[in-house]
Design a protein that fits this description.
346 residues, alpha/beta, 2 domains, five-stranded mixed beta sheet, 12 helices, 38% helix
Length: 346
């Protein structure tokens, strides 16, 4: 019996180490604020007896930096915009997903399960992301100044509302809007079309009251300057903000469609436990969790139609543009009142 003591001690030590490692198991989540609130994460921790380590980001640039550092080995599951997903796939940072292993995808609205129709989440026939949160960027209008809701993006250029239109201060979206208004591709402006799209944006600058940066700024301008129309970069979050302030406003998706962003959950190619990451995505799609996202963040989830479903229309999911640096440089000239030199438009 004494000869068995060393073996017993060795097995006991191995068991203790394995138990300690199991107890320390953690799911490392990289996400946006409001996507993984601590109370919701605590439920997941208790249910699966794991620790959830959450890292929050505030911009796509920070998200890229954190995920690419150490080639994604610092995280198991991430939340990213569809416009970023393809980039991460190309960098080898994500692994294919199998929605049939994530039961709650069956609860999602049909358009969010039609993966091939959602840009940039299917690459070479493989699915790399599951939709989670979204917002369209439609038009908010003052009901007192419109006998009928506006129907077109071109309403932003309507001279009848000169000085009473608000647009967002960004090059990417405004070039996309102008291209869309002209009947072009919002994300791929050809070299020969930049002059025409730029002229359209110069005309917009002359028609707006100003270009805003924050939703609170837009709300204050709306109330104090009898604004008629707003391009809602923050979508229905801005609509709720104005209605909560007692302003009688409506919201529409114009006939050309509305630019929209769609954030998805994806699993890092270096995930330590892909099955656990699948469980996290499945948990995020539970009705009470998705409802919490909408109630707390004023963002739409993928299980329910937005409250003002009558305003829904064609959504144009954001995609990478042909040259974001060029758009940004031209926009700075436009918004400052300069006409870009012809050589910059060719």
């Amino acid at each position: 019996m004494n000869s068995l003591r060393p073996l017993w001690l060795l097995l006991s030590c191995m068991f203790a180490v394995a138990h300690a490692e199991a107890a320390e198991q953690a799911l490392r989540v990289l996400a946006w604020p409001g996507y993984a609130d601590s109370d919701l994460a605590a439920v997941f921790e208790q249910r699966y007896k794991v620790k959830v380590e959450i890292t929050l980001v505030g911009s796509d640039e920070v998200l890229r930096s954190k995920l690419t550092e150490n080639h994604g080995s610092d995280f198991d599951v991430i939340a990213a915009n569809t416009a970023e997903i393809h980039h991460y796939v190309d960098q080898g940072l994500l692994q294919p997903l199998h929605p049939e292993r994530i039961a709650n995808t069956a609860r999602q609205l049909p358009r969010f399960r039609d993966y091939p129709r959602i840009p940039d989440i299917v690459v070479d026939g493989k699915i790399y992301a599951i939709p989670y949160a979204w917002s369209d960027m439609g038009l908010i209008y003052d009901r007192k100044q419109f006998s009928q809701p506006p129907v077109s993006i071109d309403s932003m250029w309507d001279p009848r509302f000169q000085g009473r239109v608000l647009a967002f201060n960004t090059g990417n979206h405004n070039f996309s809007l102008a291209s869309l208004a002209l009947g072009g591709d919002p994300f791929r402006i050809g070299a020969g079309d930049f002059a025409r799209v730029t002229d359209k944006l110069i005309a917009l600058r002359r028609n707006v009251l100003t270009f805003y940066a924050l939703p609170e700024e837009a709300a204050e301008l709306f109330r104090t300057h009898e604004v008629a129309l707003v391009f809602a970069n923050y979508g229905r979050q801005q609509l709720k903000q104005l209605r909560d302030a007692g302003v009688d406003v409506g919201y529409v998706v114009p006939r050309e469609g509305a630019l929209a962003w769609l954030d998805c959950w994806a699993i890092s190619s270096a995930a330590r436990d892909p099955a656990l990451a699948n469980m996290w995505i499945n948990y995020m799609l539970e009705p009470q969790v998705s409802r919490a996202l909408t109630e707390r963040q004023d963002l739409s989830n993928t299980l329910q139609e937005p409250p003002d479903a009558s305003a829904s229309g064609r959504l144009i999911w954001l995609r990478p543009v042909e040259d974001d640096q060029r758009r940004a440089a031209l926009w700075q000239r436009i918004v400052s009142g300069e006409r870009p030199p012809l050589r910059e438009l060719q």
